[in-house]
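During the second year of the project, the team shifted from modelling isolated chains to modelling whole assemblies. The rationale, set out in the original proposal, was that interfaces cannot be judged from single-chain predictions alone. As a representative example for this report, we include one of the complexes processed in the last quarter. Its constituent sequences, exactly as entered into the pipeline, are reproduced here:
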Amino acid sequence: DSGVTQTPKHLITATGQRVTLRCSPRSGDLSVYWYQQSLDQGLQFLIQYYNGEERAKGNILERFSAQQFPDLHSELNLSSLELGDSALYFCASSVGAGEQFFGPGTRLTVL
Amino acid sequence: EDQVTQSPEALRLQEGESSSLNCSYTVSGLRGLFWYRQDPGKGPEFLFTLYSAGEEKEKERLKATLTKKESFLHITAPKPEDSATYLCAVPMDSNYQLIWGAGTKLIIKP
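Output from the structure prediction step:
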């Protein structure tokens, strides 16, 4: 158990809908990262927050947004969902620039 | 351009057959190299951090080593439960973001 929690574990929704994924980092970690992993693909970095502020952006679509709250938990919002958004979404956390610890992921299925 | 390359893409071994996975990197000023294990449908599990050339870390049947240009993950007498995708990553120069290799899929046959 990495100490990073993600909810929900599974999410099934329809095209055009909006969903919110939630992540709670390890105790003491200030950085939260979001990744997308499509079937048999590598990890695609989406966005990073550090202590409530956006720090880095990767290949994140304009339909996706995220935020980190004062209690350091983070939410990833995905809107106008398309079939191609079906993937595993991972959250990771770190103290600083060191190793990242990953949550169990949310499996999103868009029908 | 900062880059991380892993080889081979896939490796099939018999149980007990030792081998090594490679992670080569080109970054300006290495600030650590991380190894992870990922099982299908699960989040990557942190294994090791290496910071300087010559450093070695061990965990059960795994040993990670680091040179100035690459890292090796040696697997000694592997068991079927060692089957997984092994990923390496290095921090980018500018922020906390990691550059990830594509991974090596390791399959250990009983």
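Residues 43 and 75 of chain A are 18 Å apart (CA to CA). Chain A has no helices and eleven strands.
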